[in-house]
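Readers outside the structure-tokenisation community will struggle with the description of the input data as it stands. I therefore recommend that a typical entry be quoted early in the introduction. An entry of this sort, consisting of the sequence and the corresponding backbone structure tokens, reads as follows:
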Amino acid sequence: MVEAMAPTRDDSLPGSGEPDMAIPLGDGNEASVIAASPASAPASELIEPGRALALADFSPPALAAGERLIRLAYRLGVPGPTLAAPFRKPAKPRLLATVLNPLPGSKVAGTALRAGHFMVHGVKAPITQIDFAGAARLAPPLERVVHSFAWLADLEAAAPREQVVPVAERVLAAWLAANPAPPSRPGKGPAWTVANAGLRELNWLVHAPLILSGNDKAQRARVLAAMTETARWLDKNVGRAEDLLAEVAGWCGIVAAGLLLPDGKPRRLFGEAGLIKALGELVGDDGGVLSRSPLAQMEAIALIVKLRACYQAVRRDPPAALDAILALLVPPLLALTHGDGSLGSWQGGWAVDAADLAALIAASGVRTRPLRDVRQWGYQRVVAQKSILQFDAAPPPLAKHARSGCASTLAFELSHHGQRLIVNCGGAASAGGLIPVRLEQGLRATAAHSTLVLDDANSTAVLINGRIGGGVSEVEVDRRTLAGEKLTGATRLEASHNGYVARYGLTHRRILILRDEGTELRGEDLLVPAGGKGKSGKVAFAIRFHLGPGIEVGLAEDGQGAGLALPDGSYWQFRAGGQVTVEESIWADGQGRPQPVQQLVLQGLVSRGGGNFAWLLKKMG
């Protein structure tokens, strides 16, 4: 890649010109886009191409020789009580401390529980109809909530403890009756994945007052025995986790049990070493998780926050590496927030509400700004006054890391003053709530994102169970700041991917230029023959711009643009160098529920020798 030169002027960015003139941005060569002055050229930000995220390197806590021996012996199978107190009887099961829950749940979901229903992404499921044994499989989001006991936080938020304890005890008793003993290995029923078992152990311990406050001593003994058995099961099976985030959840359950159950020091030492190693493999150098999923990022933060509360309950300092990793995890997540504080819709996620995100960040205790250096996380973020642009400038996650992997390369989202203009559909991970499960794969497709699609084919193959196949393996990115005598300034992003090279011999290149005042976004999508020589024939293309909720659309008389009336009363104009149509779309809101929206589509046939399509989005008045 050649080092870029900063421009002195850019005549394709008029300060007050009419938006109905869609001016081409060139063929992607810098000389044809900007007139540069080598004498005054500052270095631009060049981002190296690549696929895999680099791994952060964290070491387990430093231990004395005796503690290292205890950890080794425990890993080899010596029972914890034998190592913790070899000359006395094992202590009776009990809880050593009460944890203060750091993450409040949903009062609405908790109220539904008190009324006899689980409520997940807008769908109510009667508790009496739930098969806790797992023979009749539930929708994936409901399954996670039920078997991880994440609902305990919701119940706690709904009413004073004495009013919700009976509900928690009834549901737990039904679950224990259906799951009397752990299986020999993971995967035998949804309750016994490593992720659900680890989350369940952690939630049981954090919310213990809800499930251990009753007068039934036999029930209390069963719950404590279940905690102990689950911890032992995790000790043996955490290495068989379904993915890295599931392994982290399993290790968090192990460490929490080591802190809060008797004779737990050997388990804690064992768990801390495994947890920090797993986190080091999960998190890239800039703090982004390998799945590139904001939902997974939030889950990793929540796990550490809850585990840190367990340390505080027993008045013990957590390993320094945990705080270091937490400080790494927060900035990438903030990079995907819009002006209203809610999240962008990426890798199966939805537009998580600002209040939910703010509560998580506050509980983390990390005060920081959004990530700027996105070489690993892969999402470019541009802030221009009241506008925020998010751009997926990296390959999808590797198949082994993907939970709801999406073919979203070179898609973007744009918001202005908290109002979303251009979005991605999102919501694949919430399918099974009000979003039907049958739509899950479609919501992960390239067409569900605001980018270019060739021949209705995904740029990366979308497989079942959240996995992805071959396609985009390399993305090249160039980010520059434009300035000159007639410009107020702008940020220029150029990126290309090779997802369509194997099938169509074409590389997709996208150029985005956002003015610093945030009221004008210019774009151009180019299809460039791979290897410099195009094939014969034509292929269908569609460039999709999914619109934010509440936007009213009116097509221009010439059919080459549209007017966009936003809920806040502002008016934007979209212009393109071709025929624009309006189609229906859906968007997953802050609770993962579907909302009807519209999309602008620029489509037609393009030669396999290549082509370019310029467009403009500008605020009027």
